Amino acid sequence: MLVAGSHASEVPDPPEVIRAVDCSFIPQIESLGGVFRVQGTPVDPIAFFASKGVNTIRLRVWHSPINGFCGTSQTLALAQRVHASGMRLLIDFHYSDTWSDPGQQAKPASWSSLSFSQLKVAMRLYTLQTLSALAAQGTPADIVQLGNEITGGMLWNDGKVSFWGDPNWQNLADLLNAGAEGVRLSPGGNNIRIMLHIDRGGDNAGTRAFFDRAQQYDVAFDMIGLSYYPWWHGSLEDLRANLADAASRYNKPVLIAETAYPWTLGWADTQNNFVWQSSQLLPQYGANVSGQRDFLLKLFDVQRRVSGNLGAGVCYWAPEFAPFPGLPSPWENLALFDFAANALDSWSAFVPFCSGDLNADRLVDDIDFVTFAGAYNILDCADINMPAPCPADVNFDGFVDDTDFVLFAKAYNELVCP
Question: Residues 149, 181, 320, 332: which is the catalytic one?
């Protein structure tokens, strides 16, 4: 049996910043004949993501979905493509037959009549069986998310909670620890990082309320996941402050587990979009491709500035969810493909950061030197309201000064980024 909290020292630190996307719609899109393109040329989307710098794919897993998509067999098949492209796997268990989020956490239909004791067993076994199947085909999970946006708990009503001292928290803790037992019992399970995910990217009070309770009830977890959609979750300053506080308060890596930003306020199909008006935008970023790209670059920059190297990275939700015949999309203007499924330049934000490569072309050369010289003596690089990140701040202390010049000069002599 797992002793909650006893496993953390066995889990290795992330080898690099997580540059992730959740692309769980791909099998459904491809089943409808949908094709993704780069400048008009068809591409395999999974291989394309890897080529742009994405290193982790997040896949949602539903227990017994009506149409089969996001079920175990679909997940296994997509995981093979992920590993074939050299990327890691983040498994997002919804513990439901459909969407789980703060407004709905329905049990799988086959679990609806189980007692609470039986429910814990079912959660442990289902988690174990799914992860074991992934490992058996050579595509083990690297990170496992126990529930999706579980701010209000999971497997309602048995695991339903409120923030403030809800007596049902013991039930939620027992369910989460049952899932954690399933993770640890799976092949290689001691090397899998367990993440708890809520929807409070810019809400520090809400984040503290949830994770204080998780610690109080001795829930086993290795990472914190936060959703951050600006139109729902606050300003960039709210996000920055919450990431910094959560990382230091709980001493855990913090992942922006879901995010998105519009490249247009237009639309292509008859489905209403989640974002459609300028009042939903951040003042620094327009609803255009450059705004979308710079928003993503800013998130990576904010994460690099989290102390203790605890800013784990960023996961973009549903970049593939452009409009396709047979699958109307309320996310069409938040995707990273245009309405004809051509890749947008926003993908350049996933290029791995390389100190000194200020224009992200994988070379440290005279162009970067000119950029660095122009930025020298800027004193407010850490200002969250600056619309673009400040790559000349090589050591991320908020200033471009002599220390950065020394670091830049070293990178300049190496010329090529790894």
Answer: 149
